[in-house]
Design brief:
alpha/beta, 6-stranded parallel beta sheet, 10 helices
């Protein structure tokens, strides 16, 4: 099969940049996709970070320490950008205005104003494809729930819960990093860092919160500064958002939770939907299983737990008996981005990466959540329609 090659540059050569490189190296894992990425340029202010790519990826021909140089490279078609939140507005807008397609990390701006600056650049270059990184909905179990929602299987929705929990910050001896500082992470705290993952599916389903009551927690107030002293932690550790959804056809409560300090959870993403005809849940804690409870009036109420086989959005060489993991979900996300870039509305399968509009929706929710925390009140969310 002849394949279209998309030439990528990476801006920000840290953990997630390496994950993209790993996904590109595993592209042969995909069975029937006529497009593939090639990483041709990398950029990071830290020479040690770019050295990893120079040493391991033969296709890398150019190494930059200024992203503007990468944007001038005619051999770069698209960019993956993974930098701290305070840099999103400038870098993302410049990438788009340079005519480079973009997959950027969440939350697409340190705050709502920064997100608006990115949106302005998008309006100037409507032909540039821009998407937001969000891997977890590509797990087979999550895709099963997407299918059930699309088919209207749940009946009247009773309530929804979605969350992303991990415990990486439970140890108070962990040194402070940029995610603990308002200047680099933003006032959103854990919401900006984790929240797009949580809101990706609810917003895709059209479940926009009409209001939010936020409970935000700062659990560790200071951390080692790496210089023998202690530095104050300025951002929220955990967030629980009680939301009121009204789609016009039905109304229901929705709870969103984002936690950096959740004992016992290494990296747990989940969604639970309760309905009058079907209830279902999936969690990456048990990545092979999907739980569902079909119900008919007067019938029994019994949960069914079945293995979710390796049946991903994009066909792979892996047999259905094997397990699906995080590296697989990243590969699937990148396949969706490249597929959409190559084919636009004629994608191989219909599930797209998170959109700029969905990222903007998350900013509306997080901004209202901050207002709720300040006032102790439920805050109405203006969706502008």
């Amino acid at each position: 099969m002849a394949k279209q090659t998309i030439r990528f540059g990476i801006v920000g050569c840290g953990l997630m940049g390496k994950e993209f490189a790993s996904a590109a190296a595993r592209w042969l894992h995909l069975a029937n996709l006529d497009v593939e990425p090639e990483i041709v340029a990398v950029c990071d202010a830290n020479p040690a970070a770019t050295a990893w790519f120079r040493e391991r990826i033969p296709s890398v021909k150019a190494v930059y320490d200024d992203y503007r140089q990468l944007l001038q490279d005619p051999d770069v078609d698209a960019v993956y950008c993974a930098v701290p939140h305070n840099l999103h507005a400038e870098l993302y807008a410049d990438i788009v205005r340079a005519g480079k397609h973009l997959l950027g990390e969440k939350p697409f701006g340190i705050d709502a104003e920064a997100n608006g600056r990115i949106a302005a650049a998008l309006a100037e270059r409507p032909g540039v494809l821009v998407r937001c990184s969000s891997e977890f909905p590509f797990f087979p179990g999550a895709q099963q729930i997407v299918q059930w929602v699309t088919e209207g299987r749940f009946g009247r929705i009773i309530e929804v819960e979605a969350g992303f929990w991990h415990s990486s910050d439970l140890d108070p001896r962990k040194p402070i990093n940029w995610k603990r500082r308002i200047g680099t992470n933003g006032e959103y705290g854990c919401m900006g860092d984790l929240g797009m993952h949580v809101l990706h599916l609810p917003l895709r389903f059209g479940w926009r919160p009409r209001s939010v009551r936020a409970l935000l927690s700062q659990i560790v107030s200071e951390r080692p500064d790496g210089k023998g002293g202690m530095a104050p932690c300025e951002t929220w550790d955990n967030a629980i958002l009680a939301c009121d959804v009204d789609t016009g056809n039905q109304a229901f409560p929705m709870t969103l939770s984002m936690k950096r300090i959740a004992p016992g959870h290494a990296n747990t993403w989940f969604i639970r939907i309760q309905g009058t005809a079907l209830s279902a849940e999936f969690t990456t804690k048990n990545p092979k299983q999907v739980a569902s409870l079909p119900y008919e009036p007067g019938g029994p109420q019994a949960w069914h737990v079945i293995d979710a086989p390796y049946r991903s959005a994009y066909e792979t060489i892996t047999g259905g008996i094997f397990e699906f993991g995080f590296s697989d979900s990243i590969l699937q996300m990148w396949a969706a981005f490249c597929d959409e870039l190559a084919h636009r509305d004629a994608m191989t399968q219909p599930f797209r990466c998170a959109t700029p509009e969905e990222a903007a929706g998350s900013h509306r929710v997080f901004t209202a959540a901050l207002a709720s925390q300040r006032t102790g009140q439920t805050v109405t969310i203006d969706w502008g329609d």
